[in-house]
Amino acid sequence: MVQNDWQKGRIVRIEDETASTKRFWIELPEVSRFDFEPGQFITLELPIHEQQSKRARSYSIASAPNGTNTVELVIVQMEGGLGTGYLFNEATVGTEFPVKGPRGHFTLTDPIETDIFMVCTGTGIAPFRSMIHHIYNNNIPHKELYLIYGTRKNADALYLEEFSMLKEKLPSLHYIPTFSRESEVAPGHGIGYVHDIYEQLLEGKDTSAHFYLCGWRDMINEARKRLQDKGFDKKSIHFELYG
Ligand SMILES: Cc1cc2nc3c(=O)[nH]c(=O)nc-3n(C[C@H](O)[C@H](O)[C@H](O)COP(=O)(O)OP(=O)(O)OC[C@H]3O[C@@H](n4cnc5c(N)ncnc54)[C@H](O)[C@@H]3O)c2cc1C
Q1: Which CATH architecture has domain 6-103?
Q2: Is 242 in the pocket of ligand 1 (CB under 6 A)?
Q3: Does residue 131 line the site of ligand 1, with CB under 6 A?
Q4: Using CA positions, which residue lies closest to atom 48 of ligand 1?
């Protein structure tokens, strides 16, 4: 099967991650394994509109390739959102819908030759979770990895415990969850916005690192501007815009 045709997808597991975010496991039962590159996304066709062109919603794959036909997505509910309204309120384990993918070019270079800064907010952490687990699982040569993850409060942080444990096993991973609405945080965590964190980390460094930005427009635009002002080449700033 060509993976860029529509194929059947089926929800096989749903778990709450935070008050507004759920993890969905989607099985692609027509293939025995679903191969993709970490950082890619799939598109779901949800029964939310009469016109087919208005039914598609894309989600980054949050799991690393594992040789199976099931992928994990992490999705935040949008107030008034049609797709997330359906996924959160109507879809259940067993719900099926067409899926297209894997799609997208938000992937790491091969080989990885520079330090990598992964900057994200909210569910923008999804592609980085896939990339980092893939690097760890396959012992892929790399330099330093900075995961700068912005969210409001400790209780909103996705995969907090998992990354805190992973960084113990992967010493090149600098995991810096950064909270805009907390006044006290654990050692090594940040207060404020992601931009201040990477700017501090860049002090005294050259512009050879590559930046991967993922999330919503305001954060991405701000980061692209700040990095270009600092002399980073456009080609070293990669981004995945959620909307
Ligand atoms: C490549 C890619 C990967 C993505 N990966 C993820 C991911 O991993 N996790 C994730 O959570 N999201 C991801 N997204 C975002 C996702 O595709 C959806 O956009 C998101 O889930 C919202 O969809 P929705 O149907 O619920 O909202 P929509 O119905 O599309 O509405 C979006 C927002 O706009 C508002 N809105 C809708 N219509 C109007 C209107 N007429 N006037 C004013 N406001 C309006 C809604 O209230 C809502 O807040 C990704 C997007 C892309 C492009």
Answers
A1: Beta Barrel (2.40)
A2: yes
A3: no
A4: 81
Q: How far is residue 233's CA from residue 70's CA, in Å, rounded to a whole number?
A: 37
| C-alpha–C-alpha distance, residues 103 and 20, integer Å | 26
Q: Which residues make up the CATH 3.40.50.80 domain(s) of the chain?
A: 116-241
For residue 62, the ligand 1 atom closest to its alpha carbon is 8
Q: State which ligand 1 atom lies nearest to the alpha carbon of 242.
A: 51
Instruction: Walk along the chain (243 residues) and give the pLDDT tens digit of each residue.
Output: 555 699 999 999 999 999 999 999 999 999 999 999 999 999 999 999 999 999 999 999 999 999 999 999 999 999 999 999 999 999 999 999 999 999 999 999 999 999 999 999 999 999 999 999 999 999 999 999 999 999 999 999 999 999 999 999 999 999 999 999 999 999 999 999 999 999 999 999 999 999 999 999 999 999 999 999 999 999 999 999 999
CATH C-level class of 116-241: alpha beta
CB of 76 within 6 A of ligand 1: the answer is: yes
What distance in Å separates the CA atoms of residue 66 and residue 78, rounded to the nearest whole number?
Answer: 29
243 CA → ligand 1 middle, Å: 6
CB 25 within 8 A of CB 117: no
Contact (Cβ atoms closer than 8 angstroms) between residue 17 and residue 23: yes
In the chain, CATH 2.40.30.10 covers 6-103
Q: Which atom of ligand 1 is nearest to the CA of 57?
A: 17
Closest by alpha carbon to 236, among 186, 203, 202, 204?
202
Q: What is the pTM of this model?
A: 0.95
